[in-house]
Input
Amino acid sequence: MADEAEVVEEKKKPSLVITIAAIAVLTVLALGGGWLVGTMLAPPPAEKPAEEVAKAGGEAKGGAEGDAAEAVPHISTPANGVVLLDPITSNLAYPSDNRVRLEVALMFKGVPDVVLAEEIHQDIMAYMRTVSLQQVQGPRGFQYLREDLQERVDLRSEGRVTNVMFRSFVIE
Output
Protein backbone atom coordinates (compact mmCIF):
# COMPACT_ATOMS: atom_id res chain seq x y z
CA MET A 1 0.00 0.00 0.00
CA ALA A 2 2.90 2.35 0.68
CA ASP A 3 4.19 1.75 -2.83
CA GLU A 4 0.88 2.90 -4.33
CA ALA A 5 1.02 6.21 -2.35
CA GLU A 6 4.51 6.97 -3.70
CA VAL A 7 3.37 6.30 -7.27
CA VAL A 8 0.40 8.68 -6.86
CA GLU A 9 2.68 11.46 -5.49
CA GLU A 10 5.08 11.09 -8.43
CA LYS A 11 2.22 11.46 -10.88
CA LYS A 12 0.97 14.68 -9.21
CA LYS A 13 4.33 16.53 -9.42
CA PRO A 14 5.07 18.14 -12.79
CA SER A 15 8.60 17.65 -14.01
CA LEU A 16 11.07 20.50 -13.39
CA VAL A 17 12.34 20.17 -16.95
CA ILE A 18 8.83 20.65 -18.35
CA THR A 19 8.33 23.77 -16.21
CA ILE A 20 11.62 25.31 -17.36
CA ALA A 21 10.81 24.50 -20.99
CA ALA A 22 7.36 26.11 -20.69
CA ILE A 23 8.85 29.29 -19.18
CA ALA A 24 11.50 29.43 -21.93
CA VAL A 25 8.86 29.08 -24.66
CA LEU A 26 6.70 31.81 -23.11
CA THR A 27 9.71 34.10 -22.79
CA VAL A 28 10.61 33.65 -26.45
CA LEU A 29 6.99 34.34 -27.45
CA ALA A 30 6.91 37.49 -25.29
CA LEU A 31 10.18 38.77 -26.78
CA GLY A 32 8.96 38.12 -30.31
CA GLY A 33 5.65 39.85 -29.63
CA GLY A 34 7.40 42.85 -28.08
CA TRP A 35 9.75 43.15 -31.05
CA LEU A 36 6.83 42.91 -33.48
CA VAL A 37 4.78 45.58 -31.71
CA GLY A 38 7.86 47.79 -31.34
CA THR A 39 8.63 47.68 -35.05
CA MET A 40 5.00 48.43 -35.89
CA LEU A 41 4.79 51.46 -33.57
CA ALA A 42 8.27 53.00 -33.82
CA PRO A 43 9.01 55.13 -36.86
CA PRO A 44 11.98 54.03 -38.95
CA PRO A 45 15.20 55.97 -38.30
CA ALA A 46 15.72 58.93 -40.59
CA GLU A 47 18.58 58.54 -42.99
CA LYS A 48 21.04 61.42 -43.26
CA PRO A 49 22.04 62.77 -46.64
CA ALA A 50 25.56 61.85 -47.76
CA GLU A 51 26.74 65.45 -47.29
CA GLU A 52 25.78 65.48 -43.60
CA VAL A 53 27.43 62.12 -42.99
CA ALA A 54 30.67 63.35 -44.59
CA LYS A 55 30.51 66.61 -42.65
CA ALA A 56 29.88 64.80 -39.35
CA GLY A 57 32.85 62.53 -40.05
CA GLY A 58 35.14 65.53 -40.60
CA GLU A 59 33.94 67.34 -37.50
CA ALA A 60 33.74 64.44 -35.08
CA LYS A 61 32.39 65.46 -31.70
CA GLY A 62 32.74 63.54 -28.49
CA GLY A 63 30.07 60.88 -27.79
CA ALA A 64 26.80 62.03 -26.30
CA GLU A 65 27.55 65.73 -26.72
CA GLY A 66 27.65 65.39 -30.50
CA ASP A 67 24.46 63.32 -30.54
CA ALA A 68 22.64 65.82 -28.31
CA ALA A 69 23.67 68.75 -30.48
CA GLU A 70 22.27 67.02 -33.56
CA ALA A 71 19.08 65.81 -31.88
CA VAL A 72 17.83 69.13 -30.42
CA PRO A 73 17.72 72.07 -32.81
CA HIS A 74 18.83 75.41 -31.41
CA ILE A 75 15.79 77.71 -31.20
CA SER A 76 17.74 80.93 -30.89
CA THR A 77 18.22 82.21 -34.41
CA PRO A 78 18.06 85.73 -35.85
CA ALA A 79 15.57 84.50 -38.44
CA ASN A 80 12.87 83.61 -35.91
CA GLY A 81 13.55 86.50 -33.48
CA VAL A 82 14.30 84.30 -30.46
CA VAL A 83 17.13 85.04 -28.05
CA LEU A 84 18.17 82.36 -25.58
CA LEU A 85 19.34 84.00 -22.37
CA ASP A 86 22.21 82.63 -20.31
CA PRO A 87 21.10 80.31 -17.48
CA ILE A 88 20.06 82.21 -14.37
CA THR A 89 21.15 80.78 -11.02
CA SER A 90 20.21 82.64 -7.87
CA ASN A 91 19.35 82.14 -4.22
CA LEU A 92 15.73 82.51 -3.20
CA ALA A 93 14.72 85.15 -0.68
CA TYR A 94 13.39 82.57 1.79
CA PRO A 95 14.75 80.06 2.64
CA SER A 96 18.06 81.51 1.52
CA ASP A 97 19.78 78.11 1.30
CA ASN A 98 17.54 77.12 -1.65
CA ARG A 99 18.67 78.03 -5.13
CA VAL A 100 16.78 78.38 -8.37
CA ARG A 101 18.11 77.78 -11.87
CA LEU A 102 16.11 78.72 -14.91
CA GLU A 103 16.74 79.05 -18.60
CA VAL A 104 14.57 81.52 -20.46
CA ALA A 105 14.23 82.45 -24.12
CA LEU A 106 12.72 85.72 -25.34
CA MET A 107 10.73 86.08 -28.56
CA PHE A 108 11.13 89.53 -30.11
CA LYS A 109 8.94 91.33 -32.61
CA GLY A 110 11.22 91.77 -35.57
CA VAL A 111 14.99 91.89 -35.11
CA PRO A 112 16.24 90.79 -31.66
CA ASP A 113 18.01 93.39 -29.53
CA VAL A 114 20.91 91.80 -27.65
CA VAL A 115 21.44 94.79 -25.34
CA LEU A 116 17.78 94.73 -24.30
CA ALA A 117 17.97 90.96 -23.81
CA GLU A 118 20.92 91.42 -21.42
CA GLU A 119 18.99 94.06 -19.44
CA ILE A 120 16.03 91.70 -19.18
CA HIS A 121 18.38 88.91 -18.06
CA GLN A 122 19.69 91.09 -15.23
CA ASP A 123 16.15 92.16 -14.30
CA ILE A 124 14.96 88.55 -14.11
CA MET A 125 17.96 87.64 -11.95
CA ALA A 126 17.25 90.52 -9.56
CA TYR A 127 13.57 89.54 -9.38
CA MET A 128 14.36 85.89 -8.62
CA ARG A 129 16.33 87.02 -5.55
CA THR A 130 13.12 88.48 -4.10
CA VAL A 131 10.98 85.36 -4.61
CA SER A 132 10.35 82.94 -1.75
CA LEU A 133 9.94 79.18 -2.10
CA GLN A 134 6.29 79.37 -1.00
CA GLN A 135 5.51 81.74 -3.88
CA VAL A 136 6.63 79.30 -6.57
CA GLN A 137 5.46 76.00 -5.10
CA GLY A 138 3.02 73.99 -7.16
CA PRO A 139 1.55 74.62 -10.59
CA ARG A 140 -0.31 77.74 -9.52
CA GLY A 141 2.85 79.27 -8.04
CA PHE A 142 4.75 78.53 -11.24
CA GLN A 143 1.97 80.12 -13.30
CA TYR A 144 2.13 83.26 -11.12
CA LEU A 145 5.91 83.36 -11.61
CA ARG A 146 5.47 83.11 -15.39
CA GLU A 147 2.93 85.93 -15.36
CA ASP A 148 5.12 88.13 -13.14
CA LEU A 149 8.14 87.62 -15.39
CA GLN A 150 6.06 88.29 -18.52
CA GLU A 151 4.80 91.53 -16.96
CA ARG A 152 8.32 92.64 -16.01
CA VAL A 153 9.62 91.85 -19.50
CA ASP A 154 6.72 93.75 -21.11
CA LEU A 155 7.50 96.80 -19.00
CA ARG A 156 11.24 96.62 -19.65
CA SER A 157 10.96 96.00 -23.39
CA GLU A 158 8.03 98.36 -24.02
CA GLY A 159 6.22 95.66 -26.00
CA ARG A 160 9.16 94.59 -28.18
CA VAL A 161 9.25 91.14 -26.54
CA THR A 162 6.13 89.13 -27.30
CA ASN A 163 6.77 85.96 -25.31
CA VAL A 164 8.89 84.63 -22.45
CA MET A 165 9.56 80.92 -22.91
CA PHE A 166 10.83 78.75 -20.05
CA ARG A 167 13.28 76.11 -21.18
CA SER A 168 14.05 74.78 -17.70
CA PHE A 169 13.17 75.60 -14.10
CA VAL A 170 14.84 73.82 -11.18
CA ILE A 171 14.75 74.54 -7.45
CA GLU A 172 17.46 72.95 -5.31
